[in-house]
Amino acid sequence: MLPEYKTSVTKVDNADKMAGKAIFTGDIQMDDLLTAVSVRSTIAKGKVLDIKLPELPKGYYFISAKDIVGENICNIIFDDWPIFVDKQVNYLGETIGLIVGEDKGKCLDLAAQVNITYEEETPVFEMVNSYIYKEFTKGNPELFKGAAEIYSESFATGYQEQAYLETQGMIVYFDNDVITVKASMQCPFYIHKAIMRVTNYPENKVRVIQPAVGGAFGGKEHYPSLMGGQLATALLKIRKPIRMIFDRPEDIAFTTKRHPSRTEISAYLDKHKNIIGLNIHVHIDGGAYKGCSGVVLSRALIACTNAYTFDNLIVNGDAYCTNKVPSAAFRGFGSPQSIFAIELFIHHLANHLGIDPLELRNKYMVKQGDITSTNGIFRDPIVLKELRDKAMKMSDYENKVKLYSRPGSNRGIGMSWFLHGCGFTGGGESDIIKAKLRIKKDKDGVVTFYTSQVDFGQGNRTTLKRIVVDTLGIPEDKVIYDAPDTSLTLSTGPTAASRTIIIVGGLAAKAAQHLKDIWVDGEEQEIIEPYVAPNFIHWDEATMQGDAYPGYAWGVNIVEVSFDPLTYQIKVDGCWSTYDVGHCIDERIVVGQADGGIVQALGYGYLENEVAIDGKFRQRNLSDYIIPTIEDVPELETGFVDNPFPYGAFGAKGAGELTFVGGAPAIALAIEMAIKHKVNKVPANPEYIMELLSHED
Amino acid sequence: MINHFIPKNLSEALDILSNHDCYIIAGGTDLMVQKHRSSGLLPTFEKDVLYISNLEELNFIRSDDKGVHIGATTKYRDISSSELVPQLFKDVISELASPNIRNMATLAGNIGNASPAGDTLVALYVLDAYLVLQNKESKREILVKDFIKGVRKIDRKPDEMITEIVIPHHDLHYYWKKVGSRAAESISKLSFLGAYITKEGIIKDLRIGFGSVSITVVRNRDIEKQYIGLKIDEFSQQIPEIIRKYDEIINPITDQRSTKDYRKKVAMNLLKDFLTKIK
Ligand SMILES: Cc1cc2nc3c(=O)[nH]c(=O)nc-3n(C[C@H](O)[C@H](O)[C@H](O)COP(=O)(O)OP(=O)(O)OC[C@H]3O[C@@H](n4cnc5c(N)ncnc54)[C@H](O)[C@@H]3O)c2cc1C
Predict the structure, then answer these.
(1) A542: left (phi over 0), alpha (psi -120 to 50) or beta
(2) Which of A369, A426, A668, B247 is most buried by a 10 A CB count?
(3) If you average pLDDT over residues A538-562, what whole number do you get?
(4) Class for the domain spanning A25-123+163-254
(5) Is 0.95 surpassed by the pTM of this model?
(6) What lines the ligand 1 site, CB under 6 Å?
(7) How far apart are CA A179 and CA A177, in angstroms?
(8) Nearest-10 Cα torsion for A40, A42, A43, A49
(9) Domains defined along chain B, listed by start
(10) 3-state class of A213 per DSSP?
(11) Cα(A246)–Cα(A252) distance, integer angstroms
């Protein structure tokens, strides 16, 4: 029997954060704390010929590639991103060195006086040089040859900035002879590994501790590893504590963002207007270094048919090398781009064929037992129909469609439905991450458990603790669960990929259960629980065939907008969402994800515009890079359909990314209805809408 | 060495200005942002600074036959809650920045900052508002439109400060639209203010201003005057010509907030909408 979980508890971090007592990286006080500021390339591509330093006063240092003791590499899947530019500059703002010293103002002055001579090379900003290519097929694409008609369209999505409240920041210092790091981060062990490689220090001489973290959204998955390599190098040379915190414009301009994309889709139709199959090609702009672009591409490709089943598919994807800041992890990780494309495509195709879009969508909606895009199986019960019906009822969807479809209504309503695969792709959990969770009990029956999961506001510290408390059936104050410290915890993997509750939560429940099973009062006991993947998961990374994910979460977003034909502005009037996140352990925490996710996705869909001109981002602060304010957001209504997942903790699946992936297509479809014109790009901002409509004047 | 002055009263402030070339800080919501250096560091001022926001003598709103007088340190919050202030200004202020900024910032600061995107400037131009500049010895009055010389360029002598803004009374019907990028805390992509008086079917007054489409507010009294005195039905026939005239003088730019095409097109849409609504 599942406990009745929806009741919510007070988040464990609430009191400290409300009182301003939580200690973030910027709040940490230390004696002799130095500041580091970056010296960045001013060109997008070329060779560094010479670096002329100003006279450095005593106590001020310039740290660069020359100072690296180990390897000048920040491994993010590939070994291509250097910690500091050695010779070759590949994007504007790439770090050439650090100026470190006591006074930040002086450091900034000195950094501005560093004079670098380059031999410039011609940069590439367009998606022309593919550095990762992937492909797979499903069914029998030979059948495409017999098509009566082919219908094709292309879709584009832009950059998106994570816009976490707390910018990137890190402190490094020596604790005796241990390199110790506190940082705004998502993945302590990524930083740990990066620093070992750059410093040649052994595992037990590098320690990463998580302070309070103010938001991440994927933006702190990889970038802190780079900062870690830079600061650790400085630490070895200077041997004093050093802190680096980015100002907002620096953070926006030079840290990783969501991949811009272009997706081409062709539908092959028989003479009865049935879809024989699709040919889909996803292109993503990876920036100067590959980083995790291959994985983002994979996930975009796997999700390219979203929550529809098509029997025959040709799927291709390219990630392109451009001389821009590398694109990297961001909530949704590739799937928002391809889900946007397919959701709009289906509607456009239906309109083209003269079929009610909802009818066409229903016809291909995924059912339990269907074959996934990669020839895996949707094994678990699927409640998408219930989610759809519930959301349609909450929003009065059908009536509004009738009403708003009329000419001159200037209103629109759009619905997306979608899935999100939880956890790492394929065998990633068992082959790459290999999570191990340590739980121990002391003589007095106090239980402590350790994970490497970072709570950056989303509430996982509260939920993971609750899982252990309830499994053991002991009072809450008998369980200790603190923020990660790599010297105490074994790696349970990164805080990413919506894996925390489904994977680590499951692991925590299992570990707690094992402890309970062997529990002896008055004794010290410890268990190390390894992650074991469900044995039905088979995935071949090379061919991209098999079960891509251990489980899927599902959702429906409906968005209503009105349109001002004089200014082309869009106002969001209503927003309804339904989700299957398995079983909601703490409904308020999930609603927190739902609210934040949809707002971030609406921003992606109609407001957030980041344009790079000659490799330089034009919007560099939050008054130009426009994210929604509370005034832009209507009342958000969210409902759930309970569908417990057999392998997670207490039936829970992932909720972090699911709540993001459908927002952009939902609002784009609503905008289409309001402006009576097809939309093929997000953000569908007023400038774009004007352009679309200007052809009609 | 940079001096920071916090005068106790206006005469002390004017004394300081007669001896020191100062930045004047009222709410600081423009100047502190412009001078911001990096988190944890003080802003960089290259010359002395005079803080005036606590000068109670300049914190007033009163009305006489010349118009509504608003003191230089009066906050937006108080302006928008005063019964003396015309509704148009309240409308403008209700969309300016956000409550926290409106609790600090001043109308004088919006003028002093002379940004192309200053939201109150359009209304100040259209209503022929003027300001009072004062130095130790004397006072002078100058129309806001003459005071603003360009982007961040104003006709202030180092020993002067704005002490009040005077908004003449009016009984204009108005059409105001701020086109921002979102519902709040948004810098204008453009703004439009049309105003008119009709009496017995005749246009008695017509005023049109555009914000954020040029280095400063675009208002052209010559164009406006040509249509004053027309009967409404005659006027309606002139609408295409009026639009053509503004089309020639509105030449916005593309920047990080919007494009020149968008600004132009929307400015024209709003103008047309306004003109066709005059009755
Ligand atoms: C988050 C944010 C949002 C904003 N949104 C908007 C918006 O929507 N619309 C808009 O128009 N503006 C906006 N602004 C800009 C700013 O708030 C306004 O321009 C405001 O009116 C400035 O007033 P202040 O008193 O703070 O000016 P200050 O910063 O104190 O001064 C601005 C300039 O005026 C000069 N000055 C001030 N008082 C005097 C005086 N008595 N005599 C002579 N010179 C003087 C100063 O020297 C300085 O050059 C925004 C600012 C921020 C930070």
Answers:
(1) alpha
(2) A668
(3) 94
(4) alpha beta
(5) yes
(6) B 23-31, 33, 52, 72, 96-97, 101, 104-106, 108-110, 112-113, 118-119, 156, 161-162, 185, 187
(7) 7
(8) -70
(9) 4-167 (3.30.465.10), 173-277 (3.30.390.50)
(10) coil
(11) 9
